[in-house]
TrEMBL record:
This is D-3-phosphoglycerate dehydrogenase. It holds the Pfam family PGDH_inter. SMART domains: AdoHcyase_NAD. Residues 64-83 have a biased composition (Low complexity). It catalyses: (2R)-3-phosphoglycerate + NAD(+) = 3-phosphooxypyruvate + NADH + H(+). The keyword Transit peptide applies. Its EC number is 1.1.1.95. PANTHER family: D-3-PHOSPHOGLYCERATE DEHYDROGENASE 3, CHLOROPLASTIC (PTHR42938:SF5), FORMATE DEHYDROGENASE 1 (PTHR42938). It comes from Zostera marina. It is an enzyme of class 1 (oxidoreductase).
């Protein structure tokens, strides 16, 4: 089928635009063209279109959790009595102690339920009344918690760095955003690492306990010096590099192992990045600063201890699970490891008979790395800002399970986000039977180079559009890829590099659904796929192609697509048929192969046509097929 020219019709006059292209615009339409504000776009991205908790628009049913023992629920107004009528404040459960400045910030926006020391069962009960939860390392946010939330939980805020206590896979499946506070406790953790390193080397804790027990054992507690010794920093991230900087100041020779760190950054503070083997075998002291993941779990074990220098000393302020604790006990008993200083444990709190806690060559603290007044205030503010921002629908800079896209890029992509979802919705409604979509190709045409165009949000919103109209699922930026995968839907992407100025991020987007039948045969392109194409014009998403027919209709309201034999009077006939049923036409566009041949008419309507109206359209003799699509 040849590509067709387009005729667009509106109600206040017509303009001939090229031989086969008529554009008619209606003045009211122009005034209704509102570019979605940033918040609304990111709201769609994060909250599945259900609304945000901004000052102007709250569409979720939040309720205040009933206060329980050890609980305070505070906020500046109750949900039911909100003077803004339908607007409801979200409820944020703070499950572990948080700094006052952070709580104040939360209270200015939400009902805040501070309930500490909840059992797992109590947490699961309470969570169904909460839109967000804030935890530290002591609360396990498990799959059960997400299941129990009944879809209400939208944000998990981790007031700290490590997110190993949050089931990220489950959070993602449930479309729940996880944010953390990655920077505010870095210095506190590094200082604690140095405190443990020095205290261990000079037996401070043991000597203190001994003196308090009435002994004066100057010969027993002879220590070792730090100056000139080799310190291996394992994990050269934020905390590791600050530990390295401080250890350099103590006159230590510092090396580091981190598969992902930049050698330049290490060199800048006088640290050599070395292999795992070198870090392990040449160290007098080892300080651990990597996250607990499946690849770092028990990274220090019988085998790795056996390769260390005899008499090595170990500091762990990362996570207990990076050490095989039984193996460490064996290494201490055999003298391979002379001493250890531990802030973290595999199980916290450790049992009363934990062999490491009781070992005379081990000093311990109860996970105090982040526990300074300054760090806790900083963390509280950092996480409160992230959680409130996420509930408002903004994309958090510290999102752990969603693509992080800079605000500038996001605002530029904003109109394309709306276009993407609408194209997905249109395309799937054209599939005969709706479901069964397994293979989708998205084409991005742009004058920008590939690495200058981040399509993750666009792809997520197309996915949302493809899935939501034909299922009960709610899809957002967090769970879009997961939702597609779960349905066996493969979404491939291709780029067309256009000549010209890369001012606009995208010229057009095409969505092709492969290997399906269509309920509207004209939507099948020459390549045998359902194809829809859209552009953004003046900030408004437009449908510009259906199958092989060029059209031009703004994607507002809903759409009727008709295939007809091109002939005079068709636009008027369809328009008056809809008018008879009180359906307001906001835009019409006709794409045709050539005059008097087949044409596709795209009609934008404000109201949903009743069955009788659709039946009457089908009865117009020149109409060969038609379909009504909700946008
Ligand atoms: N004890 C405490 O209270 C406390 C306080 C803050 C942070 N922490 C823990 O310390 C850890 C580090 O925190 P951060 O803020 O520096 O995080 P970070 O993400 O800035 O740094 C972690 C570094 O570990 C590296 N890494 C990952 N896998 C590795 C591997 N197999 N070998 C070596 N390096 C590896 C990463 O590349 C990264 O550079 C976190 O797990 C966090 O939970 C504990
Ligand atoms: O990962 C972290 O940030 C630290 O381990 C601090 O944990 P906490 O918030 O439980 O003190």
């Amino acid at each position: 089928m040849a590509a067709a020219a387009a005729i667009s019709i509106c109600s206040n006059g017509s303009t001939v635009n090229g031989s086969n292209h008529v554009v008619v615009s209606r003045s009211t339409l122009v005034s209704r063209r509102i570019v979605l504000p940033f918040r609304q776009i990111s709201t769609l991205a994060l909250r599945g279109g259900s609304g945000s908790y901004g000052q102007s628009r709250v569409l979720v049913k939040a309720t205040t959790a009933t206060p329980s023992t050890n609980t305070t629920t505070t906020g500046t107004g109750s949900n039911a009595s909100s003077s803004r009528g339908l607007e409801v404040k979200p409820t944020i459960l703070v499950a572990e102690k948080l700094g006052e400045a952070g709580l104040d910030l939360l209270r200015s926006f939400a009902n805040v339920d501070c309930s500490y020391n909840l059992s797992q069962e109590e947490l699961c009960t309470k969570i169904s009344l909460c839109d967000a939860i804030i935890v530290r390392s002591g609360t396990k946010v498990t799959r059960d918690v997400f299941e129990s939330s009944g879809g209400r939980l939208h944000v998990v805020g981790r007031a700290g760095v490590g997110i190993d206590n949050v089931d990220l896979a489950a959070a993602t499946e449930y479309g729940c955003l996880v944010v953390n506070a990655p920077t505010a406790n870095t210095i506190a953790a590094a200082e604690h690492g140095i405190a443990l390193l020095s205290a261990m080397a000079r037996n401070v804790a043991q000597a203190d306990a001994s003196l308090k027990a009435g002994k004066w054992l100057r010969n027993k507690y002879v220590g070792v010096s730090l100056v000139g010794k080799t310190l291996s920093v394992m994990g050269f991230g934020k905390v590791g590099s600050e530990v390295a900087r401080r250890a350099k100041g103590l006159g230590m020779h510092v090396i580091a192992h981190d598969p992902y760190a930049s050698a330049d950054r290490a060199r800048a503070i006088g640290v050599d990045l070395v292999s795992f083997d070198e870090a392990l075998t040449t160290a007098d002291f080892i300080s651990l600063h990597m996250p607990l993941t499946s690849s770092t779990s028990k990274i220090l074990n019988d085998e790795t201890f056996s390769r260390m220098k005899k008499g090595v000393r170990i500091v762990n302020v990362a996570r207990g699970g990076v050490i095989d604790e039984d193996a460490l006990v064996r290494a201490l008993d055999s003298g391979v490891v002379a001493q250890a200083a531990l802030d973290v444990f595999t199980v916290e709190p450790p049992s009363a008979d934990n062999k490491l806690v009781l070992h005379e060559n081990v000093i311990v603290t109860p996970h105090l790395g982040a526990s300074t007044i300054e760090a806790q205030e900083g963390v509280a503010i950092e996480i409160a800002e992230a959680v409130v921002g996420a509930l408002k629908g903004e994309l958090a800079a510290t999102a752990v399970n969603a693509p992080m896209v800079p605000a500038k890029v996001l605002s530029e992509l904003a109109p394309f986000v709306t276009l993407a979802e609408k194209l997905g919705r249109l395309a799937v409604q054209l599939v005969a039977g709706g479901g069964g979509v397994k293979s989708v190709k998205v084409t991005y045409a742009s004058a920008r180079a590939s690495d200058d165009l981040d399509t993750r949000i666009i792809r997520a919103m197309i996915t949302k559009g493809l899935i939501e109209p034909v299922s009960d699922s709610f899809v957002n930026l967090v769970n879009a890829d997961f939702s597609a995968k779960q349905r066996g839907m493969r979404i491939s992407e291709e780029r067309i590099l256009l000549d010209g100025s890369p001012e606009n991020p995208l010229e057009y987007i095409q969505v092709h659904i492969e290997h399906v039948e269509s309920k509207f045969g004209s939507a099948i392109s020459d390549a045998g796929e359902i194809t829809v194409e859209g552009k953004v014009k003046d900030g408004i998403p437009h449908l510009t192609k259906i199958g092989s027919f060029d059209v031009d209709v703004s994607l507002e309201g809903s759409l009727i697509l008709c295939r007809q034999v091109d002939q005079p009077g068709m636009i008027g006939t369809v328009g008056s048929t809809l008018g008879k049923h009180n359906v307001n036409v906001n835009f019409m566009s006709v794409g045709r192969i050539a005059p008097r041949k087949h044409a596709v008419m795209a009609i934008g309507v404000d109201e949903e046509p009743c069955n009788a109206a659709l039946k009457n359209i089908g009865e117009i003799p020149a109409i060969e097929e038609f379909v009504y699509l909700k946008l």
